[in-house]
């Protein structure tokens, strides 16, 4: 099963070293994980108020620096926890050439839109006009499944389900998340389901059994002294 590693825990250090992130110990950890071949993408949890109150995470300057440093090395997955994702993507488009966007994925939240039709239009814009390779729709843990219909699911490339409350790291995986994975995997068996939040060796197997196809994993890996060991341990305990 593919693993996308969230580097949320590294964000403060990377921003501190933004002028030369490639010289930091954190960057060496990231490169060592990339070199294992066990990581599908680097996951950036981009947060802004008011959707995530009082939090600005991954400022655009840092997003640009990470992109420029890691391009050609591994795809990036941009998880936009922002109220207006199109404005954020317009900023990203200033430094991500159209020819490179096909390699990267974007996930936008249903909670960012007043209506489902607005979200469908946004997905189409990001895919068809902006040229990003994979565009997903995301639901926060408390948001009911029925706010997303078949029309939206058909338009998107994947569904990203939060198995914790969005906006904070180091949370415990919620069984409510398992129920949502099961709901979408039964209803839309051909649509890839990503899960994000509280993933460890035990919960990875729960999510996989429920129907998850990609795991977004952060602190279980990145808080270890040797993150490569955490990545390899997880990869060896889940399905291919």
Brief summary:
It contains eleven helices and eight strands.
Would you kindly provide a written description of the structure presented here, covering whatever features stand out?
The chain has 240 residues and is an alpha/beta fold. 40% of the residues lie in helices and 17% in strands. An eight-stranded parallel barrel has the order 1-2-3-4-5-6-7-8, surrounded by four helices. Helix 2 (25-36) packs parallel to helix 11 (227-235). The chain is globular. The protein starts with a strand and ends in a 5-residue tail after the last helix. The mean pLDDT is 96.
Number of E strands = 8
Secondary-structure element order, N to C: EHHEHEHHEHEHEHEHEHH
Number of domains: 1
- The backbone outline, from C-alpha atoms, is globular
What is the name of the CATH class? Alpha Beta
List the total number of helices: 11
Strands of the biggest beta sheet: in what spatial order? 1-2-3-4-5-6-7-8
- Average residue-wise pLDDT: 96
The CATH architecture can be named as Alpha-Beta Barrel
What are the segments in which pLDDT stays under 50 over at least 5 consecutive residues?
none
Our Rg estimate from Cα atoms comes to 17 Å
**Range of strand content:** 15-25%
CATH topology-level name: TIM Barrel
| Proportion in helices | 40-55%
Structural class: alpha/beta
- Termini separation comes to 5 Å
Largest sheet: 8 strands, parallel, barrel
Key phrases:
240 residues; alpha/beta; TIM Barrel; 8-stranded parallel β-barrel; 11 helices; 8 strands; 40% helix; globular
